[in-house]
Amino acid sequence: MSTDDANRRWTRSMPEAYERHLVPVFFRPFATDLASRAAALRPDAVLELAAGTGALTSALLDAVPTASVVASDLNEAMVTAGSAREPRADWRQADAQKLPFEDGVFDLVLCQFGVMFFPDRPSAYAEVRRVLAPQGRFLFSSWGPLASHGFGAAFQTALEQSMPGGAPSFLEDVPHGYTDPAVVAADLAAAGLALTSTEEVTLEGVAQSAASVATGLLTGTPVSAALQTRDDAQTLQATVTQKMTDRLGNGSVTAPMTATVYLAQHQA
Fold this sequence. Notes:
Elements: H1 3-7, H2 14-40, E1 45-49, H3 55-63, E2 68-73, H4 76-85, E3 90-93, E4 106-112, H5 121-131, E5 132-143, H6 150-162, H7 170-173, H8 181-190, E6 193-207, H9 210-219, H10 224-228, H11 233-248, E7 253-266
Parallel strand pairs: 1-2, 1-4, 2-3, 4-5
Antiparallel strand pairs: 5-7, 6-7
Helix pairs in contact: 2-3, 2-9, 5-8, 6-11, 9-11
């Protein structure tokens, strides 16, 4: 398996740790914000891409209870977990680059922190354009640089100190690897979509402990693949956890997290 494939591979063991340790801290605050923005667009038929375990799905259905929402994800494990957690949505396993939907059937396509995982973004964006109604909108978010995410930066530093020369670069390469609005605009344009607005948003994440965040990132993301084959995996996890705690503090911890929210539509 290539490094790129490993960085995008989610296994059945990950959703539980992802939901427990990462969703409340990283994703739920931004889900509330993005759902509010979506509600202002007054959608009737919504498609969510890379829905994960449903943090945004739930926030959206609370904000727009009359909307019909299809929540999709490439990974079967996420679809299984998400459909159990948020049964109000119609859950579908779907590849964003080959969407199994008719042309022009959604007036809003949403994606929170998922576009970074698409291997061919212009291809995925072309599919978004195809399934969007003529006046439809594409609302999505992407993390800022790793240095702008207090938890992620602390984790990566701890990982590199604990694994000199061999630390996985997943966080920097994928979740925090698509940060230039000019690149995003070019990818959208290549697919026939026009970027109409961008907004940088910084929110505070609150975690029950640095150890909880470390556990989530070590076991609830593709970083776990780098540990599974190591004999010292448990010792390494303990070392990373301690280094994160030393940096962020004991007990409940907070840190700023920055993302960019994008809005696009069909080119004129």
